[in-house]
Amino acid sequence: MKPAERHLGDDQMIAVVVGADSRLRRPDAALAHLETCTACTSRYHELARQLTDWRDEAQAEADAIFTPARLESQRAQILARLEYAGHPARVIKFPARGNQSLAIFTGTQVRRWIAAAAAAGLIIGVAAGRMVDFHPAAPQPGVRATATAPTAAPRVRDTERTGVKPGTDDQEILLNLDRPLYLQPVAELEALDAMTPKPREVALKLR
Amino acid sequence: MPDSPNGPFKAGRKVATPAEMTAVGLADVSSAIPVVSPESRLAGEVKHLVAQGAMAEARERFGLIVAHQQRRAIRIAYHFLRDAADADEAVQEAFLKVFLHIGSFQEDLPFDTWFTRILINGCLDRRKARRRRERWLLPAQNTTGDDQGRVEAVASAAASPEAMLLLSERRAQVAQAIERLPNRQRTVLLLSLYDERSPREVSEITGMNQSTVRVHLFRAVRKMRAMLEGSRETR
Predict the structure, then answer these.
(1) Burial of B57 per CB tally in 10 Å (0-12, 13-18, 19+)
(2) Which among B20, B69, B75, B224 is the top mutation candidate for probing chain A, defined by the most A β-carbons within 10 Å of its own β-carbon?
(3) How far apart, in Å, are the Cα atoms of B160 and each of A116, B164, B165?
(4) Which residues on chain A are in Cβ contact (under 8 Å) with B67?
(5) Alpha carbon distance B100, A86 (integer Å)
(6) What whole-number distance in Å separates Cα of residue A156 and Cα of residue A152?
(7) Is A109 on the interface with B (CB under 8 A)?
(8) Distance between alpha carbon A38 and the CA centroid of its chain, in Å?
(9) Tens digits of residue pLDDT in A27-51
(10) pTM over 0.80
(11) What is the ipTM of this complex?
């Protein structure tokens, strides 16, 4: 058999049916062969029929689901949507109270509130520290506390009396805090002092 | 030899030879004189009515376009998406987009080409979104129980139970084979085969040139035949 008379392969047949000439080495020769070869013409029709069957079954499947009634309903929905098409959506505001309370809890505002609270706490702490002098005799390192620190509370004694020296450790400082109470009792605290058990008394009792 | 007047398959290719070739519908449509379709004429009217602000009349005219295009559109969308609800929504959105952008419709071009392009792009976007969802969720059935029942009821009206079962299996295999095609091949196959578009029309819809369309169609048909023959052998 001459090359031109060879039967068409499956790929050639598909190429002929779909018109993909680029997939055929010699499109004219293939068509010419189909004219003369009944076997290949039969295969051609068989393939074309298969493709038609696929199409007809697919259309039947879709038509079974989308009946005329369903299509009518779809058309009505489309026209209804077209009525509102292009109109801006109506914005419904949330209730004002909810808005205000929620507004506090946005990210940036939370951080601002925290920063403000921290700053306020710092200011209050510094102010309170200045108003209440817990360490009247506590000098700066290397500086003798000779001057009298003005205090608001009467029971806070002069630093000279406590005699806190630079380099004194914490324990001594604490003891020195209590010393004025013993040396110069405060009338307001005497009653309280009488009620408070002393360390020595407690130690004796425990024995 | 069977001689179908409409042709079993239209590939839009010019064939000078035998009567059987032209009988099977291998006619060259590219050289045909372009005729303004009813939808294109209606779309032009809708465009003018919208420009004049006559929205009610525009919607009424557009309803006629919907009636003409609806069935064809739903067939394409259904076979693209394999889900009736998705296909319904895709078609509705496509019509909505067309109406909202009717001002950009060029009256010298066929309306259904423009509309089909919008529809196909919408279907592709839905497929992508569904694939993203399916990474995290269990996949739903392709058709709802009601829809499947309707398909089977129509099939059973004319056929025996065995034939109905075979038909149902064959449809499922064809649908699965189409699903496994790459995107471009699937698009070209659905437009060429199911929507009976010529390569020139498919080229206008998809933006590919005609020879690329034919190559994709060739590959799609070849792959589908291989998959279907493979599934037949495994039975």
Answers:
(1) middle
(2) B75
(3) 82, 6, 9
(4) 75
(5) 7
(6) 8
(7) no
(8) 73
(9) 788 888 888 889 999 999 999 999 9
(10) no
(11) 0.76
